[in-house]
């Protein structure tokens, strides 16, 4: 177990700059998830930590040791690969023992470690099978076992669940979470799936174009996204966005959005000029539907019934991304109806022209 | 029987007839060699397609010749050495060429391919000088060296293609487990490359086993010769007599091991040769 510190980490491949000045601290025993769209550099960042790619600039520390120039085996890291990469010609036991034997451990120690790891992952029955005789979930567990057997200081996961089917993915996600609770070891996990990130992480790192967009707990990222990108990336269905114009910045702020009319919001917009073009974001569950009145009328184009909840899709005023309203089932709304949208004002997000979120103003006047 | 069925039948008959022709064309010479080798010398020039009596006299004659037994031994030593050296160098080279990114990799591959295009005769005199310079004239080591030169390009190409197909993550997993490149090659890649190694190894063996020109040029004395040369130099009682019986017996003797080897590795050879073409 150890902490990991990244300081102004950079990675370039030829003239392409993949990782740009990444600063990050992963605490001892923390479960950190790197998430972002493909090509954002999350896997590269993981491989830099693993030692599979060389660091172009910056410093990487594990515990208090600078490990920039150490080979993977001396960094004390274990890695689970997307394709599992099990050695096909070895049994489960041999797969897990391979690294231990290479570390020149005594046979009894190897045996002890493998058996202990197998017990944790419930692989005891499978020890003498070859990878091709295992199911996807079992292979996944063996891959984890191989990474864990050497008792690394940090466990790295590179999209470990993306090769599994949906139901197995949920099950393995659960197992990984429980494993983390039981072992308490530091884990860094890469995924493009924001649901995996939300459910597993103590701390989520959202990456975009090689830079960290925001770091925070799942709750922080959901409730207070720092940028419009994070707001749109975290949460399913995604947040609704609509253009808004700033009317005044006194006492919180007043904005107007097409169809919604004038809204008085708690955000501090004092840095913005009057008339500034803003972007207004509301999560589907923070929109209420009401009988249409005046200009506030939106047409329902589709209704999805999911059993426990209902998604209502509405024609937007600007752009062509449908607005989504989510509520518990049953719903009385039907396709073709015209309704008014009423956002819950305390849950509305505002983003400036640079897509940065405007912060909620201090409520000192109330005191 | 209607017309359609007739045509179908004719097609079938034609098909098998064609197969029979091909089979006879391919196998008959060998079959005739076997028959000839089992005849006593008195019946040698009578045309028979079937054996009436079996006579092992020719075999007894060649195996009691010390130089022939010695030649077989030389051939085995040379061929196995060529296979071993070619596979060792081929595997390590294919790791470098297939896995390590370096400047000029494509050029190296092309040069290797280019080398294999020279005909043997073109390099014969040059190679002769090299071998004499190294003091390997009339020494099986000289043959091992020259055969390896001609076997290696093919070996390297096939193994490199195969190596490139092994998933990158497998190697990275080995690196994470603390394996050095050498351990990765021997413990992880080697067991997975058996089909390709069986193919290339067997073809290298056959090439070395059958080679004649170099073997004739680079050896001088009976006890350094390999089998193809030894067979060619089997002589009869006079200058005008070719001892067909013993020659056929010797030919059959040295062919049978190859046939057995090819039969054993048949499936492997096919899968090894097509490995580069289609993802398996």
TrEMBL record, chain A:
Pfam families: ABC_tran (PF00005), TOBE_2 (PF08402). Residues 4-234 form the ABC transporter domain. One of its GO terms (molecular function) is ATP binding. Keywords: ATP-binding, Nucleotide-binding, Sugar transport, Transport. The keyword Mitochondrion does not apply. SUPFAM superfamilies: MOP-like (SSF50331), P-loop containing nucleoside triphosphate hydrolases (SSF52540). InterPro entries: AAA+_ATPase (IPR003593), ABC_transporter-like_ATP-bd (IPR003439), ABC_transporter-like_CS (IPR017871), ABC_transpr_MalK-like (IPR015855), ABC_transpr_MalK/UgpC-like (IPR047641), Mo/tungstate-bd_C_term_dom (IPR008995), NA-bd_OB-fold (IPR012340), P-loop_NTPase (IPR027417). It comes from the Bacteria. NCBIfam families: PRK11650.1. This is Sn-glycerol-3-phosphate ABC transporter ATP-binding protein UgpC. It comes from Halomonas rhizosphaerae. The lineage of its organism: Bacteria, Pseudomonadati, Pseudomonadota, Gammaproteobacteria, Oceanospirillales.
From TrEMBL, chain B:
PROSITE patterns: ABC_TM1 (PS50928). The chain crosses the membrane at residues 12-34, 72-96, 108-128, 140-159, 188-209, 244-265. Pfam families: BPD_transp_1. Residues 72-265 form the ABC transmembrane type-1 domain. Signal peptide: none annotated. It comes from the Bacteria. This is Carbohydrate ABC transporter permease. It comes from Halomonas rhizosphaerae.
